[in-house]
Structures are given as structure tokens and as C-alpha cells.
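subagent[fold] <- orchestrator: predict structure for attached chain, return C-alpha cells only, no commentary.
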Amino acid sequence: MKPLRTVFAGTPDFAVPALAALIDSEHRPVAVLTQPDRGVGRGRKLRFGPVKQLALDADIEVLQPPSLRPAGSEVRLTELEPELLITAAYGLLLPPRVLELPVHGCWNLHASLLPRWRGASPINQAILAGDAETGISLMQMDAGLDTGPVLLQAATPIEADETAGELHDRLARMAASLMINGLDQLASGRLPAPVAQNDALATHAPLIDKADARLDWSADAGQLARQVRGYNPWPIAHGEIAGQTCRVFRARARNDLSAAPGELLRGLGHRDRITVACGRGALEIFELQAPNRKRLSARDWLNAHPDWA
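subagent[fold] -> orchestrator:
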């Protein structure tokens, strides 16, 4: 098997397992593209992203253009003569001249079963929608947003209590495995022809805003439970309970209770959960946090707030 000359493009934690797998493979990247360093904290001190740190630790050249759109921004890429460019949550659009640069074009690892959930938040949206399964798509990139033909896919069930963060980590590992599978098939001439997506089945996964995570107690308890899972670890579901604004980290729906939406249901005899009535059913909360306070289990919260029991 002839090793492929690859360049990898990624920025956040999701891309790290794929880059690590690529480094350990026969197709070790000749360079890594990642977004420019960001300032963090009050002093806005620059901090390396996880992909950059892994590349530096592996002694791989790192390229950090703020954009690939300006003419000449791809000069170093051209000099590297990549046969394939692989992206995973890179965060910058690749213009046509970059897409056409490698002999085998550009691949993208996307965290959904395309054409479902094209866009920035596929993991969150799959949970919010109550999807039974999701997965990873390895696609041949084109000029659109996650619209290119699909090379390979791997599916996985979404567990009943799985948070977006937990699913993110599982899918990141799946992406690494699917990428290596695709590379090996390409290098040996066995890669299937890409299959065009059915645009009529496409759904969109938009950028998430903090306001999206607000709990509206008039909604169905099942929907609110999915919000709690879908917005964990960011931006975290939040709402007002008994006059107290709280962030909610763990919860589940209960359908056999009924009361005015938003009412704190006391006297149920449970010391390990806080129950709030919804438009339909109730939400049982197992972990929460008040502003500027520690994150607590419901049991610890009730010990400190016995009037909530």
C-alpha cells in the first residue's frame, strides 16, 4: 500500500482523535491547518488549540491562515503538493482553488448521517430532535456547506440519557476509525464511488445561541429533557425554578404528573430529584447549579433547600 501525502485541517477537540490516528498511520500528514490562536481569560492570553498542540508535539508543520479566501493564502499548501486534504471541524470554508488542489480532492468528516443535519451543530440537533441514531459521514467536499457526495458512513444509536458531550466524544472516535478505513481503501484502489446526497432529505443544524437553551416550562417534558441533554456541555439548559434561576445538567421526563407549568412539585417523597411541572408531564432534575454557586446533585441541593422537597 502506497502511503498518501496528506494535509489535515481541524481546530477543536472533535478533530483530535482523527489527527492522532492519521499521525500513527501510513498516511502521516505533512502539515496541519488550524484556525489562528485565540485569546482567553481577562488578559486575552493566546492559547494553542488542541489540534495545534498535537501537531506541534508530533513535530508537524502548522499553518494558521485567518482565511483561505485571499489570493495567495494557499501558496504553502501548493508547495506541499498534498494528494489529499482531510478536514474535521476546521471552521473555515475552503474556496474552489483549494478544493481542487489535491489530486484526490478534499474530504470532510461530518458528525451526522448526511444529508440529515448539515451545518454547525449536528450532534446537538440530533439529540434535540429525538433521533434514534446518528453517525459519521466521510464526504468528498464541494463548494457547498456539507453538500458533497458521501464516500462512507458509520451509524450508531443515541443512548436514552446521552448528552451532547458524551455523544461528541464517541463520534470523534468513530470519525477517526472511518477516516483510516477510507484512506486504506483509497490507497488500495477499493474506495467506493461517492454517492450524491438527496437534497430533498436535507435538514439544517444552525449555530447555537445561549438563548436556545432556555427552558420554557409550558413545553412538553420530553422536549425539555432533550434540551438538557442536547445543550450539555454548552450552553447548558437553564430556567427559573421557584423564583431561582438555575442551570440544569441532568434531567429526565416523567409523564404521569400534571400541574401548572413551572410549578415546583413538592411532597413526592424523592430526595434525589427536583420535579418541575411542564406543559405536558414533568421534568425530574438530578443535577443543577445556581448562579455563582457550585454544581450540585439534586440530593445535595435538597439538603440545603429543604423547602423544595
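orchestrator: received. Logging for downstream: The radius of gyration is 23 Å. The chain has a mean pLDDT of 96.
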